[in-house]
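S1.2 Input.
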Amino acid sequence: FIFYLLDSYNIELISQRFKYLFRHMAGVIITAGLLALFFFFQPDIRSGRGVFLVCLALVGAGTYFWRLAFLSLFKKGLVNPKKLIIIGSESAGETLFHAIKDNPGYHVLGLMNDDDALLPPSSPVPAISGGPIALKKMVKNREVDILVLANSHVKDLELLKTALDCKLDGIMVCDMPTFYETMTGKVPVGHATDSWFVFAPLLGARKSVFNTKLKRPLDITLSYFGLLLTLPLALVIAVAVKLDSPGPVLYRQRRVGLNGKIF
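S1.3 Output.
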């Protein structure tokens, strides 16, 4: 039930292995907490702590590796890849193509440039010519599911208008940095412009009671506890660093913090 709530049965999520691993671990941890709470209020049916932890580890590892094996065996029959067209620059198209070429959930149909004369002659991404007319035809024939716009590179207004029409027709339209980040968990720095950062949701940037009042004391408190718990190990690591390499054990460097303050 917890896996269901976390969308862990989503085949596309399982194909994104690192993202799925964290989602899976969260499900196991939540389940462990709920079971511990249940056994606390029902002491007559609880099992030993050792048995509980062993079962939890076996179930967590077993379900994770079984799903990966299941996906690798049957992904061709289970996953209906979504057909994708990249509109914009050659470099953004190649970057996105290499990021998702091994993902069974997506199939890159090709790259559509503003100007057919600028289509790359030797690119791993197949070129799609014809501009807005060809795009409208493909959308009408249901040959495309997703349009990815290479941010700030599309200058053909007619092509942009066609992309808007596609969105109104139910086709998923998104910018390249957002789609890339969703797929890989990383921001494509070379293709992220200022306008993208303006509209991208930045966690922690908005002023709130937590940010302004609670976060700093909480950070300090947790840091002290963490330092106390890891102090014995830190001493051993400090000695090992000193024996292994020259210079001081602690690395110091000036950084820029909030409001440009150097620390």
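S1.4 Remarks. The first helix runs from residue 2 to 5.
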